[in-house]
């Protein structure tokens, strides 16, 4: 798909009904939601892609901030008759921005362990986060001590390490130094469609209490459900539960 500066590789699984459009987290890829996509209804259209600066989209130039990532997502969904945005962490903040623009065809939004609209981090935390993906050792440390609660299968774990290192330096640093601290609380109130927030009970990055304080008050159409015994990487830790929640959400639209 043509976007600003080049081509964004997009994977599309055809089907009927609302399409599920997945936006991955900082350090992830379109593969982050692969295990979820395998578990939703087989006839469900699915759209996945690596965001600008990551994985297969590394050749795309910056900027890599929220505004550009949201514009990329808008172009991805353009032409879809009806769709649901599913955003994880950074992808969740991107999804909030897209939904605030009230694009045609948007039926609902599912925010999975999303970064809140009103930031919950300070400069010291931002700088520490900027070094989380310096190398394979720091990525594994983040996985073991911060990002997950449930252990990941070995192949999934190694895919996460590879994805976390598969970024341009500018893309890798823009989120912790800029995007995560951007306050969009005054913008997301424009969202009109139903929103489901899925919070991990044991999430150390965006825990339920933070989302209840810094996200839900700004999204009047949102409800939140807590995933028991799950950390920040819930699409990888609990793909079956995420898929079940997605199907129930779509059925209720």
From TrEMBL:
<dbReference type="InterPro" id="IPR050266">
    <property type="entry name" value="AB_hydrolase_sf"/>
</dbReference>
<dbReference type="Pfam" id="PF12697">
    <property type="entry name" value="Abhydrolase_6"/>
</dbReference>
<dbReference type="GO" id="GO:0016020">
    <property type="term" value="C:membrane"/>
</dbReference>
<dbReference type="InterPro" id="IPR000073">
    <property type="entry name" value="AB_hydrolase_1"/>
</dbReference>
<keyword id="KW-0378">Hydrolase</keyword>
<feature type="domain" description="AB hydrolase-1">
    <location>
        <begin position="20"/>
        <end position="243"/>
    </location>
</feature>
<dbReference type="InterPro" id="IPR029058">
    <property type="entry name" value="AB_hydrolase_fold"/>
</dbReference>
<dbReference type="GO" id="GO:0016787">
    <property type="term" value="F:hydrolase activity"/>
</dbReference>
<protein>
    <submittedName>
        <fullName>Hydrolase</fullName>
    </submittedName>
</protein>
């Amino acid at each position: 798909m043509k976007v600003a500066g080049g081509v964004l590789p997009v994977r599309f699984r055809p089907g009927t009904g609302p399409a599920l459009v997945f936006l991955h987290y900082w350090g992830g890829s379109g593969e982050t939601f692969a295990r979820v996509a395998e578990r939703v209804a087989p006839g469900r259209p699915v759209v996945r892609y690596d965001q600008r600066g990551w994985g297969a989209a590394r050749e795309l130039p910056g900027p890599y901030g929220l505004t550009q990532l949201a514009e990329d997502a808008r172009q991805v969904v353009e032409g879809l008759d009806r769709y649901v945005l599913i955003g994880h962490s950074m992808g969740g903040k991107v999804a909030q921005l897209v939904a605030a623009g009230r694009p045609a065809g948007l039926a609902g939004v599912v925010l999975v362990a999303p970064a809140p609209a009103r930031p919950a981090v300070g400069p010291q935390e931002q700088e520490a986060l900027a070094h989380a993906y310096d190398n394979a050792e720091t990525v594994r440390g983040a996985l073991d001590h911060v990002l997950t609660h449930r252990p990941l299968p070995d192949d999934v774990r190694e895919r996460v390490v590879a994805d976390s290192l598969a970024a341009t330096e500018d893309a890798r640093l823009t989120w912790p130094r800029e995007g995560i601290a951007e306050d969009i609380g005054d913008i997301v109130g424009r969202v009109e469609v139903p929103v489901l927030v899925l919070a991990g009970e044991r999430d150390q990055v965006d825990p339920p209490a933070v989302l209840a304080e810094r996200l839900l008050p700004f999204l009047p159409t949102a409800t939140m459900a807590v995933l028991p015994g799950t950390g920040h990487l819930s699409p990888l830790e609990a793909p079956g539960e995420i898929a079940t929640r997605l199907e129930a959400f779509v059925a209720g639209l």
